[in-house]
């Protein structure tokens, strides 16, 4: 099996599958179950795969339909993968109830 498309968009995935089906090329959706389990937040993209013998024909169909840039033999990058930051932002400091002199409210004696 060869992956010809990667997407988090189920509508686009259905469209691409229909394009291939109309061209007589069988395809299978990989990762559909994990994508369903994650609740549709786009963390796990679905992959559309075809038989290795049909890869060139499938890529030609997708290119002709404008779903893949001309000359591109690699599936387009996943939207979800590009949305994940590679360098996470620093965590915000937790608020404290410290007074300016460094003592906390718990350290102070109760007012009478």
List keywords for this structure.
Alpha-Beta Plaits; 4 helices; alpha+beta; 3 strands; 112 residues; three-stranded antiparallel beta sheet
Form type: elongated
Compute the CA-based radius of gyration: 25 Å
The fold-level CATH name is: Alpha-Beta Plaits
Helix content: 25-40%
Furnish the topology, listing elements before pairings:
Layout lengths: L1 E6 L2 H13 L4 E4 L1 H6 L8 E5 L4 H10 L14 H5 L29
Antiparallel strand pairs: 1-3, 2-3
Fold and architecture overview:
It is a single chain. The chain is of the alpha+beta class and 112 residues long. It has a single domain (2-82), classed as Alpha-Beta Plaits (2-Layer Sandwich). Helix content is 30%, strand content 13%. The chain has 4 helices and 3 strands. It has helices at 10-22, 32-37, 55-64, 79-83, and strands at 2-7, 27-30, 46-50. Strands 1-3-2 form a 3-stranded antiparallel β-sheet. The radius of gyration is 25 Å and the shape is elongated. Residues 76-89 have low confidence and may be disordered.
Summarize the structure.
The protein has 4 helices and 3 strands. The protein is of the alpha+beta class and 112 residues long. It has one domain: Alpha-Beta Plaits, CATH 3.30.70.
